């Protein structure tokens, strides 16, 4: 079955659910999933609709233009995705292999509907892992004085491989604002329960603070370090018996699972970002945040 | 704000979301929440829609009759609730007070939009608790040979107090099929992670089995003991250090929270039961189960 | 059964478990529980031993002096508690009643082996709750200009009621350094997953940040706000559907349970604090933290 | 650092902690971890002690004989393990690769202190996975009429590879009593929260029952299907939105993590089995169960 998924947000107003579902129905589409949310503090309406394209009377090429008429009338932000388009992922890594293996194996077992097109790293260590699975690997070393230069190479590769999504799978470098301006679809896994322990060495700091639970956070990357909109978080109990090494080991399981869930939600077009920086003039007291339509 | 909530289920078919949201919109209602689910194994469409009644052009008394036309056409099962109707609860207890206190305190702090009209018990022990909060208490002792007789008294009280929902808050008696035929809206808390340890003494059996996690389950009561459709479950870790007494103590926190969540979901008209015994001819391989629209 | 519990910490060295268990055994005590931990980063040995006093050949009054000889030789910090001593608790509250009710009901159902001797509040609101359970209530209003004055009254009450432990059960005032110097056994519940959202309005800030999980933290109070050693934490999932009001409601369950667990652990002499400010010259890179011997 | 770990159980009696820790100390050993548990319902004392062998005055070959004198006096069951002995694992698989990959990758990243010596399967499918990591793979097909015959081959391989532990990593065959008599150290992962959904198709049955949480259980294998002593369990929330396919996908993460934790605990000699079938005459009302000294 081929489906279309609409993600839409606009100022809340009467009749939006009816208008949108009507549009689908009037063109012969059968709605498979519909979920809608109103953020009353932001005065925003947010909705995800997925419908079967079988019997839909608009051609693939006409759908966007047709829906645009409705969207313009409501001053909405929106995107339509088709389930038969397979997004292309670039995974960025450093030396740790656990998230890389995890993403590759999930992709191979059809948990992630995407192609892993390339692995890019600032270290040569994981080349063999990528090659074992027949994935190209590019080693682009990063030094303090060549970062912007090297990021240009990275961006060129993203273009060359026609990448839709970059996943930072324990990539221990901060992407520059410049990079993010040129390529903004980036998911990162941070090894703490944000906003606790943003920045470097979260496990060491968690151990020092004596917390009883540690966490991991997957978020879209913005130019504010570890401040991007959160997609998924999870936690695990620790105790005084756990050394920093134990926290790192336990955390690896969290990192794997939290990152994989976030990438999967993204690939299924379930994540809608809204808030602070939104051009729709959303309440500036609201952070940049996500609706995850599950 | 006064709202109406529609819970509806019917055989899946094209255009249902559109038809239903259209009906709301065409009468001037603003949809606040809409959530829809298709159980493909049962071929069923299930939906919950909540809309603001302000500006709705149908009188309260006309709404059901009007919607019935649409519902009949789709052969649907449905219910409409109004947010300004305050349901009346009877709590059944035996000797343990933790769930009783919990429900009363949540009701008092506005977590449960209902009136606790009466407490009914097979023991006199908790009369003082009820009276402290100004709630009537009826002691109806149950013996093996007088159960049906005493249940008649219970049913008479439910009628007298105009009860909408019975909550079994650690009521250690099994309700007869006869009782349930006459009054079917009953939520029970079972002190295990069903279907594990259905029946008597679940904590003792969990301890004997050496499980590493215990649970609690809130479900609607049917005439099959501990087999009713599950509304909510939760769990907590235990270890070899925990005696049966510790399991009981830890379990009390679970019981409180799981029961309260289930009652709250029910009172917000978020729980839709469907499955096996459904007259709509649902796949008999499917158990009686719930959709909890959260 | 009456038991004695020893909590001890000292620089790690060979033979400590043997010396301590030998001391118990040689005086005729049967060890019921023994748990030991070595914090290798701090070079510290920490142990909890509980033994049956039946048949122990030292009189209650001799035990400390006798053990002191062994302790001095190892330069240890230690405390011995007897299970038949019932600690006396003062609960500090403001306007919210959920933690107060919870502690009282647990104490009444024998989950907390202590006496709740008095409730002290900066507001009059909860007097009736305390009185319902026969507990004295003192209203000591706090204003910016009378805090130290009023704290003197609080301290006088702690003396008058012979209080062993103060529990801040949603007491929305910060205790002064002066208060803590005079009375240091204070447990607080903070309504966030520390160190995230230390300080005021954690639920509002969690909502703004768009976190997917919220938490609560019970800790000993120090003169560094929300920086005291953590005893217990727990978390619950939230979603975009949860408003700030929902976070507050869900958080109340966490607060109740986390605070009750911490108080119980403390009352069972399972919590040993060590770290940074320790006079034993512990690695200053280590925070003030707890071992919770469970 | 090389350490020795003693796991011991015997009828509870005075002075056991002292006797055992004394024995270690008197021979010059420094206790690194000591944990002790008394199962009062079984009247059993259970203990784990780990000590540094540096400076220990007994030769490796003398330790067991020497300790036996103490053990005989207390009629104890016991085992001593040395940390520099690397156990040899055989992994049994069928067609699913997720637990196999997980165990191999954890072993490679030093989370599991063992050698994975061989992979044995009733299917040829996963040979390439094993070979990629340089591990021998033996395909031994099982049919209803050749099981005992084929198990002889399996047992011969266990002997040939000098295997200490068999891990059933989603091996979809039941081992015969005969096999278990000849090789008893076997850990299995069952894809449900035992005792719920023991036997075949647990995810299908969980879906049919409409549970709100699913689980996985790692246990030692006995000749009672899914009745062996539980080492570890964990759970994850599911909802009406999850089809059987979703349960299977979510369950795979649980299976991986629960199995890996159990194998790790076993390899660190933290798991002590006791109960029902114990020759020490333990209360027959107590199931075969584990103490996991964490």
CATH superfamily of the largest domain in chain A: Formyl transferase, N-terminal domain
Rg measurement of chain A, Å: 21 Å
Helix percentage of chain A: 25-40%
Report the principal-axis shape of chain A. Answer: globular
Describe this protein's structure.
The structure is a homotetramer of 294-residue chains. Chain A is of the alpha/beta class. Chain A folds into two domains: 3-84, Alpha-Beta Plaits, CATH 3.30.70; 88-267, Rossmann fold (3-Layer(aba) Sandwich). In chain A, 32% of the residues lie in helices and 29% in strands. The first copy, chain A, has helices spanning 16-26, 60-74, 98-108, 127-132, 147-160, 177-182, 202-209, 244-267, and strands at residues 3-11, 30-39, 44-52, 77-82, 88-93, 115-121, 136-139, 165-168, 186-190, 213-220, 230-237, 271-274, 289-292. Chain A has a seven-stranded mixed beta sheet. Chain A has a four-stranded antiparallel beta sheet with strand order 2-3-1-4, covered by helices on one side. In chain A, helix 6 (177-182) links the parallel strand 8 and strand 9. In chain A, helix 3 (98-108) packs parallel to helix 8 and helix 7 (202-209) packs across helix 8. The longest helix of chain A is centred in the last third of the chain and has 24 residues, at 244-267. Chain A is globular, with a radius of gyration of 21 Å. The model of chain A is unreliable at 278-284 (pLDDT under 50). Chains in contact: A-B, A-C, A-D, B-C, B-D, C-D. At the A-D interface, helix 3 and helix 8 of A face helix 3 and helix 8 of D.
